[in-house]
Each structure stands twice: as C-alpha cells, then as structure tokens.
C-alpha cells in the first residue's frame, strides 16, 4: 500500500455559530476512519476556554477516539477570535503558523480536518478568516447549516462568499435534524442543494453530541455520504485502493 505525498484537507465552517461544526467534524473523522483513513484535526483558534481547559478538540477526541490534533491559539472569552485576542492583550494567531501546522499534518495523514470558528467571515485575526486558511491549504470547504427558517439565505451567502474567493464548497451538512422536522425544515432539505448548487452530504440527528463514544462511532458513518467522502479522500492523490471498500450510500 503506497502513501500519498500529501493528504486531503477539508475545512469545516458554518453559516453561523452553534450550528454543529464540532460534532460534524467528529462525525467526519469517524466516517473517514471507517473507510481506512488516518485522520488529523486542526483547530486554528479556540475561544471561550482558559489554559488547560478542554476545548473543541477534546470533544472531538472523546467522540471519535484517538486522533492527532493541533490547536494553534486560544483565548479565554467566548468571542470572535480577533476580538478575544485583543481583549486578552494577546497576539492574534499567525496565518503562516496555521498553514504550516496543516501542511505538517497532511504529510502523515490521509485526511486533515480544519475546524473554523463561527461563520466563514468571522475574523480569526484582523485580516484572516477560515476562507484564507482554506486557500492556503487548498482545502475543500464543508459548510454546516442549520435546518430551519433562515437556512437557505445563510447557506447561499456562505457558498457565494466561498466561490467569490475561488474556493470549492465541498458539501453541505445539516448540523442537527430533529426527530419530527417541521415544514420549513423538510422543504429546506430539498431546497438547499437546488439553490446553492452544493449537495447535502450529511445530516446529523439531534442529540448526537449526547451519545457515548461507542454509539457515536457506530452511528456516525451512516450520517454522511460515504461515496462523497471516498471521493474527497481520493482527490489527495491517494488511490481508492488505499481506502477500505465500504458500503456506499
């Protein structure tokens, strides 16, 4: 089995905050592992946690199991990273440091996931967004959307912003889906790919974050389109023969 010269990179952003990016990142990690890929996760900036406290990477590891993880910077207040850094009197995260961290991970992992903060235009530093990180690392961008009213507008704006930067929206993932979706949610599930031109490649059920690790790892591959994920992995230069043959959705 040959190794790719560098692995695939997927940046995970959202249409806003609290749409489920961390749980989607964990589900992507589990699903890629189920296909035989070695996965790493980078969190360029973590806010809202003190030094030594568990952040989003700890949540992902708790759900997905052992992963290589890198956090580039953290700030104590739960604010946009640029603002949090300024208020804490700390230097903003360095763009080159993020790119170097992701590049290093791609040399030893088939898939590197990069979880952003908030939406695609949230400032990680004064002149830095997750779109810049995606451009620097040649990442496809997974957009996590909420299912209800407002989802269509937010998704279209996010996708348009990515395309305006010459970036590739790799897929939409609905970050939480209730057991009894309302009319708007049911319509949105059909309308999101039609209006954005980007497929819905995953739907995460409500309550996924409360599952224990065993149940999360068993269920997560069924929430995402395995054929789509296999294709994303293959785009790194790694052949499909390097990925375990799984059940394609």
Report on the architecture of this protein.
By secondary structure, the protein is of the alpha/beta class. It has one domain (8-240): P-loop containing nucleotide triphosphate hydrolases (Rossmann fold). It is 38% helix and 22% strand. A seven-stranded parallel sheet has the order 3-2-4-1-5-6-7, with helices on both faces. Strand 6, helix 7 (183-196) and strand 7 form a beta-alpha-beta unit. The longest helix has 14 residues, at 21-34. The radius of gyration is 17 Å and the shape is globular.
Which stretches of 5+ consecutive residues score pLDDT under 50?
A: 237-249
What's the total helix number? 9
SSE series: EHEHEHHEHEHEHEHH
Please bin the fraction of helical residues: 25-40%
Q: Kindly report the spatial arrangement of strands forming the biggest sheet.
A: 3-2-4-1-5-6-7
Q: How many discrete structural domains?
A: 1
Structural class: alpha/beta
Q: What is the CATH superfamily label?
A: P-loop containing nucleotide triphosphate hydrolases
How widely separated are the two ends? Answer: 25 Å
Over the alpha carbons, how many angstroms does the gyration radius reach? 17 Å
CATH fold-level name: Rossmann fold
Principal-axes geometry comes out as: globular
Task: Report the top-level CATH class.
Answer: Alpha Beta
Please state the second-level CATH architecture: 3-Layer(aba) Sandwich
Strand share of the residues? 15-25%
How many strand elements?
A: 7
Q: Give the biggest beta sheet.
A: 7 strands, parallel
Look at the structure and give the mean pLDDT. Answer: 92
């Amino acid at each position: 089995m040959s190794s790719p010269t560098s692995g695939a990179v997927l940046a995970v952003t959202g249409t806003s905050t609290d749409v489920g990016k961390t749980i989607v990142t964990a589900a992507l990690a589990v699903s890629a592992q189920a296909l035989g890929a070695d996965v790493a996760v980078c969190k360029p900036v973590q806010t809202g946690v003190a030094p030594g406290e568990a952040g989003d990477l700890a949540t992902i590891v708790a759900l997905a199991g052992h992963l290589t993880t890198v956090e580039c910077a953290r700030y104590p207040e739960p604010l946009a990273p640029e603002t949090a850094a300024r208020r804490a009197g700390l230097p903003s995260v360095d763009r080159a440091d993020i790119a170097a961290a992701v590049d290093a991970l791609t040399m030893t992992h088939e898939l590197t996931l990069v979880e952003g903060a908030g939406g695609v235009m949230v400032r990680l530093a004064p002149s830095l967004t997750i779109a810049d990180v995606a451009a620097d690392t040649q990442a496809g961008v997974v957009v996590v959307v909420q299912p209800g009213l407002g989802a269509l507008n937010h998704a279209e704006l996010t996708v348009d912003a990515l395309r305006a930067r010459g970036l590739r929206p790799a897929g939409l993932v609905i970050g939480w889906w209730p057991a009894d979706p309302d009319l708007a949610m049911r319509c949105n599930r059909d309308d999101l790919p039609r209006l954005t031109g980007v497929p819905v490649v995953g739907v995460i059920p409500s309550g996924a974050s409360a599952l224990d690790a065993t149940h999360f790892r068993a269920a997560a591959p069924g929430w995402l389109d395995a054929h789509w994920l296999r294709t994303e992995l293959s785009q790194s230069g790694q052949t499909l023969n390097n990925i375990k043959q799984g059940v394609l959705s």
